[in-house]
Amino acid sequence: MDEKRKNNLILRCQIIQGIRQYFLHQGFVEVETPYLVPSPGMEPHLSALEVYCTYPDDTRCKKYLHTSPEYCMKKLLGQGWERIFQICRVFRDEEISGTHQIEFTMLEWYQAHANYQKIMEDCEGLLTFLSEKVLGVQQFSYQAKEVDLSPPFERLSVARAMSLYGGVDIEKNRDGIALLEEAHSRGYRFDRSETYSYDDVFFKVFLEAVEPRLGFPKPTILYDYPASMAALARSKPGNPFWAERFELFVAGLELANAFSELTDPAEQRRRFEEEQRLRAQLGKPVYPIDEELLGALFQMPPSAGIALGVDRLIMLFCDAPTIQEVLAFPWI
To answer: Is the pTM of this model over 0.90?
Structure first.
């Protein structure tokens, strides 16, 4: 192992210790939940790894390596836990790249009687604490880009970002056809032989024109996504087209995804069934609905939570161009 990677792994250890220190000092309890679960994440773009287990009576049972500890952590909220966090390995059978591995490390934390604005404040507090503890400074460079982790972070609505950087008005164009027509008029190119959904057009504009502009030099909290892109999030009161979801970007890296949690079991079931339908249309495995989670929502107070990619956070602090450089045993 070369000296650079060894130093990165030492810094990795310090960062993970710092994460624990921060949350324990904030009154959170660290929890552990199963890696093998009856139902993984339902989002259409996620693919889980299947595992077959044998019970003492020799019957076989199919489980999944979790794509996130979210479902189990919400069940704990339903049992009365109020401030919990977890650092764990998660598994997603997706393309390996410079920012993604099939097996990677996730930090998730959840707080009862809170909304996504409280989680925004947590992000500012955590990153500021870690930068001071690990680097001793709040201003540094990542891949020749200036980074300033001193609060407050930039807060930018999705609608404003799409208009400012992408040149399209998603507030006015709320269906796929209207958004496609505007995007095409702005110079975005689409294959005329293909059929595009609202989400397809949105992400083409977002990935080409918006995402590369986020997180410089201050981190960007990009908030209020269309509800169709936030199946586990609470809709905004009085305006159900939008959901209380945000993502955190730093120096071009997407670090985290957060919600004010949906606690309506009937609405959550409807969204899960819609995701099952979309998965079937895409030819992907259709995962069973986690009935225990739906049951827990009856007892779950208003809450908010977040998933943050620990490996990408370590990339930032190590000035590492790829995720492989902050892992002892990368897949590739």
So the answer is: yes
